[in-house]
TrEMBL record:
Residues 256-294 form the TRASH domain. It comes from Nocardia albiluteola. This is XdhC family protein. It holds the Pfam family XdhC_C. It comes from the Bacteria. InterPro entries: MoCofactor_Util/Proc (IPR052698), TRASH_dom (IPR011017), XdhC_CoxI (IPR003777), XdhC_Rossmann_dom (IPR027051).
């Protein structure tokens, strides 16, 4: 599968990844300008942006880019020659494992847009769906039934705009699924009454907004939709609301016992089990050296 096709497949599945492109390669190195790879949250590298030593540095930087949601131009050097523009989005790593050469790789995280689940078939629900699409959010519509919220693992926001029905049950389902922002379209008095039925903890109550939306004096369905979207944006940009709450296996970081480098463990990271203990290495060379010291050869 071509790299752009794989990227489109991951985007459709709402899977976070980093697109890595070699923009400069200084010989001797096995990578060339234009080489590409996709890096996943578990450390998997699909494609080629250098040998095992370079991959370790790229993997570690890519995981950082996924966490920060910011692109980075990474320069991988074999020694301490750190002549590189100090600018936002630029970074240098010294990788003594490299035999020579240098690499500059652009790492661009691809983070799924916030996914908003809208429950109800009211004018407010319709206007909210349109507004969410306008700002680039993903949208899924559901009927106003607790059983309709069958899968919320990848959902950032649930808004209940049904003006009745099993609203308390839907709130409970969303809370139990770990959704960080749950909005209920209701008056202050009716919303408080519904929440009283649930006997929420303080932490749970903080995740439920009712009346939902910023207090901008909204009256019409479209104005209420604007206030809700504005509050969601505020929660993401300033409140730390996680855009991708999907539970994903994330690569762990360990120290190479031979060279002391930090290694982001992925499926293809050199690995050795000695006396029942796992050891990971930046390269097969370090693994061979470690094995030799343990066997006495």
């Amino acid at each position: 599968m071509k790299m752009n096709e794989r990227a489109e497949e991951l985007a459709r599945a709402r899977t976070p990844f980093v697109h890595a492109t070699v923009v400069r390669a200084q010989q001797p190195t096995s990578a060339h300008a234009g080489d590409e790879a996709i890096l996943l949250q578990d450390g998997t590298i699909e494609g080629f942006v250098g040998g095992q030593c370079a991959q370790n540095s790229v993997r570690k930087a890519a995981l950082g880019a996924l966490q920060s949601h910011e692109s980075v131009l990474l320069r991988v050097l074999p020694d301490g020659d750190l002549h590189f523009p100090e600018a936002p989005g630029a970074a240098v790593v010294v990788n003594p494992c490299l035999s020579g050469g240098a690499l500059e790789i652009f790492l661009e995280p691809q983070i799924p847009a916030p996914l908003v689940r809208i429950c109800g078939a009211t004018p407010i629900a319709d206007a909210l769906a349109d507004m969410c699409e306008l700002v680039g959010f993903g949208v899924r519509r559901s009927v106003a039934e607790a059983g309709s919220l069958d899968s919320l693992a990848d959902t950032t926001v649930v808004v209940i705009a049904s003006h009745g029905g099993p609203e308390a049950e839907m709130i409970r389902v969303a809370l139990d699924a770990g959704v960080g922002y749950i909005g209920l379209v209701a008056s202050t008095i009716r919303g408080a009454s519904i929440l009283d039925e649930l006997e929420l903890t303080d932490a749970e109550r903080a995740r439920v907004r009712t009346p939902v939306g910023l207090p901008i004096g909204a009256k019409t369905s479209a104005e209420i939709a604007v206030s809700i979207v504005a509050e969601v944006i505020q929660a993401i940009r300033k409140g730390g609301l996680a855009v991708t709450p999907r539970a994903a296996k994330v690569a762990i970081e360990v120290l190479d016992p031979v060279c002391g480098m930090t290694v982001a463990v992925g499926p293809d990271t050199p690995h050795l089990i000695v006396d029942g203990v796992d050891h990971w290495f930046c390269s097969s060379g370090c693994r061979t050296s470690f094995a030799a010291t343990r066997t006495g050869s």
